[in-house]
Structures are given as C-alpha cells and as structure tokens.
Design goal:
The complex is a heterotrimer of chains A (about 220), B (about 250) and C (about 220).
Chain A lengths: L1 H41 L1 H17 L2 H11 L9 H27 L2 H9 L4 H31 L11 H11 L3 H30 L12
Chain B lengths: L2 E12 L2 E12 L3 E5 L6 H8 L7 E6 L2 E2 L7 H5 L2 E4 L11 H11 L5 H14 L16 H14 L4 E5 L7 H16 L3 E5 L3 H7 L2 E6 L2 E6 L10 H11 L8
Parallel strand pairs in B: 3-8, 3-9, 6-7, 7-8
Antiparallel strand pairs in B: 1-2, 1-4, 4-5, 9-10
Helix pairs in contact in B: 3-4, 3-5, 4-5, 5-6
Chain C lengths: L4 H4 L2 H35 L2 H16 L2 H15 L6 H26 L3 H9 L4 H32 L10 H12 L3 H29 L10
Helix pairs in contact in C: 2-5, 2-7, 2-8, 3-5, 4-5, 5-7, 6-7, 7-9, 8-9
Classes of the chains: A mainly alpha (about 220), B alpha/beta (about 250), C mainly alpha (about 220).
Chain lengths: ~220, ~250, ~220
C-alpha cells in the first residue's frame, strides 16, 4: 500500500510533465511543419533547399539522437538549454520535419485552377498562399498531423534520457527501487493507451468538423 | 440430351432487397442459352449462384447430376466443371496471358508445367490470341484481348459448360464483336454455353433458346423464332423494349 | 575542452555497432513480417471473434510507447514467463511484435487493394481459399506492400536506437560510451546521426530497386 501511495502521486506529477512537453511541442511542431512545408513548395531555390535539407535531416536522425545532440552537443557551441527546453526543441524539430511532408503533399494536391482563379482576381502570390491554398492544405493534412501528435505523445517518453522527470522516467526510478515491474509498467502502458485513445478521439471529432468543408473525400471512402 | 445444369427455385436476398425470387433453369449438353432481361432482374446474381460464387438462400442447383448447393458438396471440384467469364474480365494482374491460364492447370489440376503450357497455347489460339500476346501482362492488353484471355482461362479447365456474365458490357462497342465472335465460334463447336447479355443481335443469331428474366426469376423461354409468340404480357413488354437493338452485331 | 581527435580512434568501435543495429532491424522486420502477414490474413479472411482479439493486439502495440514496451517485456513479461532473454533478444522480440502491429495495416491495405473480382475468378476455376491466397492474392499484395515496407524499415531503424535504454550494444549505446570516455558530445552524436542517415538511404535504396524489379509490366505506378 505504501508503494502505491508514493508511486501514484509521483506518476501523476510525471503525467503533468509529459502533458507540458506535448502541449508546448505540438503547436510549435505544427507551426514549424506548416512553415517548412510551405517553404518546400513556394520557397524557391534557396529557401526551398534549406527547408528540404532541414526536413530530411530531422526525419533521417532518430529523435533520440537529436535529443542528445541538443542537450549534450549544443553546450559545446556555448548554447546551454535545460532538459525540458531541450526536449521541447527536439520534439518540435522532429515533428515539424514530419508534418512538413503532409503539408507539402496537401499543398500540391490543391488544384492549379484555384491558383489561376486567385491570380485572376488580382491576388498576390502571398495572398493566394495564405488565403486560398493553406486553409485547404491544412484541412487535408489534418489526418497526418494528428497522427504525428499521437506519435509525439508516445515518443515524449524519450525525454527521460536527458533527465526530464516525465511519466516514464518516474516509472523507471520506481522500478529500480521496488520489485514491482509488472504493476509499474502495465499501469504505465494503460495510461499511455488511454491518452492515445482520448487524443485520437478528439482528433477524429475535430476532423469530422473540419473535413467536410474540404473537397477531399478520399480519406473517408473505404 | 443430358442435363448439365439444373437450378430449381433459387432465392437470394441482400438485406431487404430480394435479388432472386425462385429462379429456375435447365441447360442441356450442347445447348446455347442466352438470358436477357432488364438490369436489376437478377441475371448476374443468378449466374454467380450456379457455381456458388454466391450462395443462394434457398433452392437446389445440380451440376452434371450432383447437387452443388448441398452442404456436403465438393464445391472446389464441381466449380471446375463450370467455366465462368466475368463482365470485368478479372484477369490475374501479376501473371501473363499464358500465366493466367497455366496457374489453374498446374495448381488446381496438378498438371505439369510443360503440359499446362501446351494446353494454354492451344486454348489461346482458339480465342484468336496470337503468339505476340502470350507473354503480355493484363495491363498491356486491350479490353477485347483481356476478355478473350479470360475465356481461354475458363476454357482450359475443360469445363462441361461455359457461363458468360455480360462478357461485352465493359468493352467499347468496337471491341465487343471480337469477343462475341469467339463465343459464337465456341458455341458452334458444341460447347454448352449460358450467356447473359444485352446484345440482342447476338442472342437471336447464336442462341438455341432465349430465356427472359425479370424480377428475380426466369419468366419464359423459347427459341429465337418463338420470341414473337411469347405467352405472357411481361415477356412481350421486355422483348418489345429490346427488339429495338436487334441489329446484327456480328454482321 | 578535449580534442576532437580523441574521438577518431573510437570510430571502429562505433561502426561495429552497426552490426547490432542491423540485427535489431532485420530481426524486428522479419518477426514483424510474419506476425503482420498473419494478422492481415485473419483480418481479411478470418472470423469476427478472432478479428476482435487481434485488434486488441494491434491497438496495444501501437498505442504503447516503445520504451514502455521494452521495459514491460524486459523486466516483467518475459521473466514472469520464465524466459531469460538478453537485452538484445528482448529488443528484437519487442521490435518485432510492435512492427507486426504496424505491418498488419500495410498488408491489410495491400490485400484489400487486390480486387475482389480476381478472388471470384480464382474461385471460379476451382481454387481453394488457401490456394488463391498463395497464388493470386499474396504475390500481388506483397509487391504492393514494398513502398510501405520500405517506410517501415526506416521507422524501425530509427526506433532501434531506443534500445539503448536496455543497454543493447547498438550504435547509440556505443556513442554514449564514447561520449563519456572522450568528454565530447557534438561530434559523436552527429556521427551517430549520419550513420543512421546512411543506413536509411542504403535500405530504402535497396527496397526501391526491388520494387522496380518486381513491378508488374504495364501496371500504373501507384497501383493502389
């Protein structure tokens, strides 16, 4: 009994940290992803190549390597970040790189006729992208984006490796102190499953509200 | 003449729609029968019931004297007695024209590769598929060629009877005739055939008997000459509607 | 500041980790292949009750972080089953079971993309379910799966780095040792990143080649 009284509150604190990590990284990742994706299509030679290289790099590196690079490597360049900030930065970079893939694909799927129409009513390229293309592209990319955020929740557990006291880290500490591996890690699995289910449900609701306004019914069919 | 297919009182429901309402039919050895009728009459469902691609809810179907609808029936063996040609060809995408034919011979009939190949070449010649096409994949063939390969695939299994489910409906009008000619040719060689089609000219020219289907059952049948003397009003109405299309497609 | 040259003599040690990483990836992919294919076949051709049970498996392995799975199986599940598995064996088993859950989706999609008409046609020439699965459905479904499979390779490759948490001597674990030994971080971790990068491209390059070789002539590029 004493174990649970100690473990549950600690785990709850860990849950809050996990939540903090994701709640900050997710919007940053989405924003970065939209920016990168847009730059990859409209960025021209210089900006486009930078965005492409950036997204290829962070998709090619395992997230855990990025995390170590940021936390242990950057100090060699004189940049010192706290564990939490390092984690947030790494998660945002990684999910941004992946999300840019969906955004890019979605932008390319907006038909060219609309571009011509936007030009014909005198819109600038910037206006066209901001008001015509992106609103549709983001709707089309929403399924991929929501998947990435669900992944981020799962991979946020990696932050334990740089000393962030999130859920997994708490569980691992307790596992080394008590011989209750089964209880500890199955409870942890259940919590992650519940969070995943909840977030998936929320995103499904969100998609149902957003998607009917886009003309891409493809994802609904089947 | 021996009865090859005998279907009695076949019923099939899909949810609340009833596709077949007691359809019956008899097909004799050497006979060519054409089933006509408006779309939604249940022609395709009926045909697929005959080799149990669709299991009927009720009714009895006998193939060559054996009841295929019986729960004890060896469906796999009985199906080999029936060649089936689909509206959409349904060729195996990953196999060449020859491969489409040999796969059944080697894997189902257990024939050797060499024998299967010989046989495949023979049936492909029967459907007028030249040597240049033997090693082409379905995606490299025209619709008419695909359908003829599909006919050859069915024919190669040495069936007692060939069933054709609207074999030309998915083809451009120009390509229909090459397929219809093959079917006619096979029928004239004495291969028992049951054809569902909208091609009236073909029906009048090739059929021994024409069966009229409506509302999930065969309402009347007779030889092409007897079509003018159909007894029921239902059958006459359907025929009148279709006679407009009675210009020789094969001419 | 330690000299970066001290890192260079550790390079062979780190590169040797590639063998361990490849064992993790190939082991996981192969186990995942058999699990995923079986799951997909049951989901396409099996009974309702079995499908429900398998859905729970898929849901569990997809919804639980890899770290938690590794810990759960290493410290709890395998020991309680009386299995004394090493970190490497545990990691391969877990990566495999998890990849199986993901691969089942790949195979399910590709089996579904073989049109039903061909299955009817196979039945019409007297093929049993077993025969039509092995001669008609799978030869096509496996071809269609290759691009998604290549993607799964890239995912499991990167996930294999997470096995450092059990101390498996793969690339990242070695780099961590080297980092401690030399006092360097930026260079060793960059080196690890680049190794993973190269492995990703080498692997997906091979898959691309296989895909092009296996493509059915005349078939459109994106078949599905």
């Amino acid at each position: 009994m004493g174990f649970w009284l100690e473990f549950i509150p600690s785990l709850f604190m860990g849950l809050l940290t996990t939540f903090e990590l994701v709640a900050i990284s997710a919007p940053l990742g989405v924003t970065l992803g939209v920016a990168l994706g847009t730059a990859r299509v409209y960025g021209g030679k210089v900006l486009g190549s930078i965005a492409r290289a950036f997204s290829a790099l962070f998709r090619g590196f395992p997230l855990i390597v990025t995390l170590f690079l940021v936390f242990f490597g950057l100090p060699e360049l004189g940049i010192y970040l706290s564990p939490i900030i390092s984690a947030i930065l790494s998660f945002s970079l990684c999910s941004g790189a992946y999300i840019s893939e969906y955004v890019r694909g979605a932008i390319l799927s907006v038909d060219e006729g609309q571009s011509l129409a936007a030009e014909s009513i005198g819109m600038s390229k910037l206006q066209e992208v901001l008001y015509i293309v992106l609103p549709q592209a983001i709707r089309r990319a929403i399924l991929g984006i929501s998947n990435e955020i669900v992944y981020m929740i799962q991979y946020s557990s990696l932050a334990f490796a740089i000393g962030v006291q999130e859920m997994y880290s708490v569980a691992r500490t307790y596992n080394s102190l008590y011989f209750k591996s089964f209880e500890i890690f199955s409870l942890l699995a259940v919590i992650y499953l519940a969070i995943t289910a909840l977030v998936t449900l929320i995103f499904r609701k969100l998609r149902k509200r957003i998607e009917p306004y886009s003309d891409s019914k493809a994802e609904f069919i089947e | 003449m021996k009865v090859v297919i005998k279907a009695e009182n076949v019923w099939k429901k899909y949810g609340s729609t009833i596709a077949l309402r007691g359809a019956s039919l008899e097909l004799r050895e050497g006979e060519t029968k054409v089933i006509i009728g408006p779309s939604g009459a249940g022609k395709s469902t009926f045909l697929k019931c005959l080799n149990l691609l669709i299991r009927p809810d009720e009714g009895r179907i006998c193939i060559d004297g054996e009841e295929i609808t019986s729960l004890k029936a060896d469906i796999i063996r009985l199906r080999q007695k029936i060649g089936f040609v689909f509206q959409e060809f349904n060729l195996f995408h990953h196999l060449t024209a020859v491969g489409n034919i040999t796969i059944g011979l080697t894997k189902v009939k257990g024939m050797s590769k060499e024998d299967a190949l010989e046989k495949a070449k023979r049936v492909l010649k029967m459907v007028h598929i030249g040597e240049d096409l033997w090693n082409k994949y379905p995606a490299q063939l025209s619709g008419g060629q695909k359908q003829r390969v599909a006919i050859a695939r069915a024919l190669a299994m040495d069936p007692l009877v060939m069933l054709y489910d609207e074999p030309t409906s998915a083809l451009d009008p120009g390509l229909s005739s090459e397929v219809l000619l093959v079917i006619k040719d096979l029928s004239e060689r004495g291969i028992t055939s049951l054809v569902v089609t909208h091609e009236m000219g073909f029906a009048y020219e090739v059929a021994d008997t024409i069966a009229i289907m409506n509302n999930g059952r065969i309402i009347e049948e007779g030889s092409p000459e007897e079509m003018e003397y159909m007894k029921t009003k239902e059958a006459r109405n359907i025929l009148n509607r279709w006679n407009g299309m009675k210009n020789g497609v094969l001419a | 500041m330690p000299s970066i040259y001290s890192f260079f003599r550790y390079i062979p040690f780190v590169v040797e980790g590639t063998l361990w990483t490849i064992s993790l990836v190939l082991g996981g992919l192969v186990i995942g292949f058999f699990i995923g294919l079986s799951l997909a076949l049951v989901q396409s051709f099996g009974g309702e009750r079995l499908k429900k049970m398998l859905n729970i498996y898929i849901w569990f392995f997809r919804g639980t972080p890899l770290l938690v799975l590794l810990s759960l199986f290493y410290w709890a599940v395998f020991p309680s089953l009386g299995l004394e598995l090493s970190p490497l064996e545990t990691s391969i088993a877990v990566l495999g079971m998890r990849s199986g859950a993901y691969q089942s989706q790949i195979f399910k999609d590709s089996i579904n993309s073989v049109d039903y008409g061909q299955i009817l046609a196979a039945r019409s020439i007297g093929m049993s379910n077993r025969k039509l699965i092995s001669y008609i459905v799978l030869p096509q479904a496996l071809r269609i799966s290759i691009p998604a499979w290549s993607n799964e390779y890239a995912v499991i490759l990167k996930d294999s780095a997470i096995c450092f948490a059990l101390g498996v001597m793969e690339i990242l674990t070695r780099v961590r040792y080297v980092s401690t030994a030399t006092g360097l971080a930026l260079l060793p971790y960059l080196f690890a990143g680049v190794l993973f990068f190269i492995l990703t491209f080498a692997g997906t390059g091979v898959m691309d080649f296989v895909y092009r070789r296996a493509k059915i002539p005349g078939m459109l590029e994106g078949l599905r």
